[in-house]
Amino acid sequence: MKKTYKAAALAMTIMLLASGCSSSSTAENDNSGIIDATSAVESYCGTTEISFSAVSEDSNIAMGTTGDIKMQMDPFYSEIDLVITQSEGDSEPEITESTMLLDESGDTQMVYLLHNDEWFKETVEASDFRMAASQYDVLYAGQLLMESSADMTKTATEDYNGFEADRYEGTIPQDMLCELFELTGSLSLVGTNIGETYFAGCGDLNATVWTDSEGVILGYELDLTDTVQYLFKVLYAENGVTDESVMIQFDSYIAKGQVTEYNNTIDTTIPAEALAAEEYTEE
Prior knowledge:
The protein is an alpha+beta fold and 283 residues long. The chain contains 6 helices and 11 strands. Strands 6-5-4-3-2-1-11-10-9-8-7 form an 11-stranded antiparallel β-sheet. Helix 2 runs antiparallel to helix 3. The chain is globular, with a radius of gyration of 19 Å.
């Protein structure tokens, strides 16, 4: 049981850990109205997806995470239903499901995790409790993209997930990528704590963000295929791997998120089973 608790605690707190990237300055752009409108949202529901497909030693591999999120800003509450899918070759995919709740009541910040039909809970300390959900926070990721790009420009008005939306496209400078991926968790399928030295020379990243007529961010999409492949190239070189037959070749690596509704009522009731769970404490 102690081993299970430690594993669960790690799953609950891993997004609170820093990767060691140095702080980057915000790019100068004129999209402050979008950032302000999005910051004013009081609640929302949405979905974040990160997935890749690749070839490793002549075998097709694929992995993906889908996080359905409900979030209320004040008092802070977030519910994330997470599904992780892994497959290799012709084998049946392995599917893992879990639920994470983050609840702020007064000065108490609690994380609840449902995994393998068992609830765990932990009291955490964080200067910005919302950061614990940042990997699945569509609005937060979209704001970071708008802030990090100096050339994010409206390119079209189109239908997006049932909304009439303005499409913005721009690039994220290479020197901001490390911190961006740390805060959004977009590289979580291939590793964490990836230092900024790995990104030197990988080039800028194209980003797409959608907003509604009020300027509220509705979604984003990043094609990280070339970036991830470059990071693996650096990793192989650093470890002296020269045999191309054992190197992973990525066909695609996509991170995206979309808002389904906002300023809606969020049910913040904590299940009785979660409240009654034994609290994990570090020994």
